[in-house]
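User: quick one, fold this
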Amino acid sequence: MARRIDGSTLIVASHNAGKVREISDLLRPFAVDVRSAGELGLAEPEETGQTFAENAELKARAAAQAARLPALADDSGLCVVALDGAPGIYSARWAGPDKDFAVAMARIERELLDRGTAQQDWRAYFVCALSLAWPDGHCETFVGEVHGQLVFPGRGDKGFGYDPIFIPDGYAQSFGEMEPDAKHAISHRAAAFAQLIAACFPDAPDAPDARASSASRADADPRAN
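Assistant:
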C-alpha cells in the first residue's frame, strides 16, 4: 500500500514556473499549502537518471531532505516516435541553457524533415513521472502519458515548453491553444496525478479526469531515454 501524505505543506521540487503553476492548479482541491523549490532557494540536483521516473525520484528526495518536508517532483518530456523517442528525458536540455523551447521545437522539425518523415507520421507522446518523497527517503512514483500528433509551426501561447506543437489525439487544438482547465483534464500530468491522488491523499475527492493513456506505476516507465 502506498504511503499517504499527512501534512498540510508540500514542496514542489521545480524551478520551472509553468510546471509549478500547473501542479499547484491540480493540487488546489486538496487544501495543501504549496511551496516551490525556487521560492525556498533549494538547489536543483543534477538529473543523472536514465528514465523519467529515476529523475523525478532524484529531485523529490533531494528537496524533501533539504526542506524536511514532503516534496513532489515532476520529470516530463516529449517523445517523438520517428526520432526514436527523442528528445525524451533530454527535453529540457534541447532548449539549451536559455531554456528557449522555440529552439528545441525548431530542432525537432528540422530532424523530422532531414529524415524525410511524412507528416502523418509525426507521432509523439508526452510523459510525466510524478514522485512524492518524504524526508526519510521513502518515495512513491507514478507515470502518465498522452499521445498525439505534432504540428508545425506551433500554435497558441497558453501553455509552456513543447505545448504549441502537440495536438492530443481526439482534439483539434494544440496544448498551446487550450485553456488551462481543458489541458489539465487530459494531460500526461493529469494522468499521473489521478494515480498519485488516489494512492497518497487521504479522503481524496474524485481525482482529475485522466482520459489520457497512462502507465500505472514507476515500473511502467516508458521507452524515452
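User: anything notable?
Assistant: The domain at 9-220 is CATH 3.90.950.10 (Maf protein).
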